[in-house]
Amino acid sequence: MGLTMKFIKVLEPATLTKRYQRFLADVETADGSASTIHCPNTGAMTGCAEPGMRVWMSASDNPKRKYRYTWELAQSSAGHMICVNTQQANKIVGEALADGVIPQLEGLHELQAEQKYGYDNRRIDWLGLDKHAQKVFIEVKSVTLAEHNQGYFPDTVSQRATQHLRSLMDMVNDGHRAVVLYVVLHSAIEQVTAASQLDPNYAQMCIEAAKVGVEFYALGCHISPSEITATTTLPVIPVSSSAKS
Questions:
Q1: How many domains in the chain?
Q2: Residue 123 near residue 136, CB atoms below 8 Å
Q3: Does pTM surpass 0.85?
Q4: Same structural domain, 95 and 132
């Protein structure tokens, strides 16, 4: 088992009414009252935001916030747990790297989060040094799109994710290591692949990135209303070269 990311406060349950305008959701709380909460997820959230789903939300003590609650978790009709707050992924990865949950990234040191890099001065989620003193650039991606036990990324067209791959390829060409780390935040998912059916350009870029040496790993998690624990690595299934066709 990996290190556990505990929620700072006890999450409060509710029932989802609808998600809209990307960053908002309406829920019904246990006492039957309606409330609007913040949705910290910019993706399509396919299968993660169905009306009637049981959800959990965290409360903020910041009086300046327009919406006090933030949507954290959802439970599918089949009982699978999903973390919809993509901001949690970097925290989970930081703890997993420190605990050596990912064998291929074990022993990284001088870890730093949110560092500027590359020719366009973008930010990398994690930067560290391996045992050979080689820089390792780690781009973290949350995976919640599930079909049976298969996870897909992205859940909609993402030019930003494709650009991240190009930047990682630049780092490999400059002599560094570069990693795409998929954080699996849906308990039904047992393996991950690029969603060529939704974003063929991203899928094709994954093929090109792998050819030059970008590394692809997936991190499985145990999800509950009290904590999220990084548990093990999961297979990343290569996309066929015909993905773009």
A1: 2
A2: no
A3: yes
A4: yes
Find the domain containing 72 and state its range: 8-83
What are the beta bridge partners of residue 58?
A: 70
Tokens of residue 79, six digits: 């009982």
Q: At what angle do helices 200-212 and 159-173 cross, to 10 degrees?
A: 10
* Helix (DSSP H) and strand (DSSP E) numbers for the chain: 3, 16
Cβ neighbours of residue 32 under 8 Å, at least 6 residues apart? none
pLDDT digits (tens, 9 = 90+) for 54-84: 999 999 999 999 999 999 999 999 999 999 9
Q: How far apart are CA 102 and CA 56, in angstroms?
A: 28
Omega before 154 within 30 of 0, i.e. cis:
yes
Token duo for residue 232: 């093990």
Which three-class secondary structure state does DSSP give residue 125? Answer: strand
Buried b (16+ CB within 10 A) or exposed e, 32-63: eeebebbbebebbbebbbeeebbbbbbeeeee
